[in-house]
Amino acid sequence: MCANYLPVTNADELLAFFGVQRDAQAETPPELYPTGLGPFIRLVNGQREFEAGRFGLLPPWRREVAYGRSTYNARSETVSTKASFKESWARGLRCVIPAKAVYEPKYAEDLTSERWRIEKEDGTPFGIAGLYSQWLEHGVEQFSYTMLTVNCDSHPFYSQFHEPATEKRMPVFLDLEEYDQWMSCSLAEAPQFFKQWQGAMNGSPEPREKRTVQPKRITPAATPRNPPEPYQGGLF
């Protein structure tokens, strides 16, 4: 699973690698977590369009943003049947999520973990297979999206991440020439993309930046000017 990634927001990169024109740096955080606003690409009348949506898909029956904390990844094995995703899947609302890098936890023998940054060896961005939802809210079109994932227990690189003795999973990374086909193919054809990506990847530790928290101001308790003498009990 992937709950944290770096979105592609630069206009030149979005045009060069994803064929869309938009500069999203002003509206998208440099690092995305569930419920954050991030970019994705969809097809409209056969043409790629840039959209901004919430990372964490919101189905028709749960529109509160916080629900996205449990729907930022969709298992490819159950995406067609799970309640949160099945309507978007049936409607063919497939998208591509542009990412410079993704983050995963790597565990040591003592079960402590550190965050690792994963990116393509050649430095080009990932295009991740996604699913989106759309609706009108007070007359304004809204979007949310999720990443598709596959089992990667046997992957030579990605299987080193996530907690020991748990299933290993990775996002569905697409090749550049697969973007339009993924977004436009039939439902019967879509599962052909649910496979481990075999391209070259690099990984290295990159801890989260520590946020500075201002200490709370503590007001000392009032002290009596003349505290009473402590009671001295007698022996009898």
Shape: globular
Structural class: mainly beta
Helix and strand pattern: EHEEEHEEEEEEHE
- Identify the CATH architecture of the domain at 5-103 and 121-149 and 173-191: Alpha-Beta Complex
Overall mean pLDDT: 89
Q: What is the CATH topology descriptor of the domain at 5-103 and 121-149 and 173-191?
A: hypothetical protein yedk fold
Rg, nearest Å = 24 Å
Low-confidence sequence ranges: 211-236
For the record, what is the CATH homologous superfamily label of the domain at 5-103 and 121-149 and 173-191? SOS response associated peptidase-like
Distance between the termini: 72 Å
Strand content: 25-35%
Tell me what you see in this structure.
By secondary structure, this protein is mainly beta. It contains 3 helices and 11 strands. Strands 1, 2, 3, 4, 5, 6, 7, 8, 9, 10 and 11 form an 11-stranded mixed β-sheet that branches. Strand 7 and strand 8 form a beta hairpin.
Task: Sum this structure up briefly.
This protein is mainly beta. It is built from three helices and eleven strands; from the N terminus they run E-H-E-E-E-H-E-E-E-E-E-E-H-E.
Summary tags:
disordered C terminus, 236 residues, hypothetical protein yedk fold, mainly beta, globular
Write the layout of secondary structure elements.
Blueprint: E1 5-7, H1 11-18, E2 37-44, E3 47-55, E4 73-75, H2 86-90, E5 94-107, E6 113-120, E7 126-137, E8 140-151, E9 169-171, E10 173-174, H3 179-184, E11 201-205
Parallel strand pairs: 3-8, 4-8
Antiparallel strand pairs: 1-5, 2-3, 5-6, 5-7, 6-11, 7-8, 7-10, 8-9
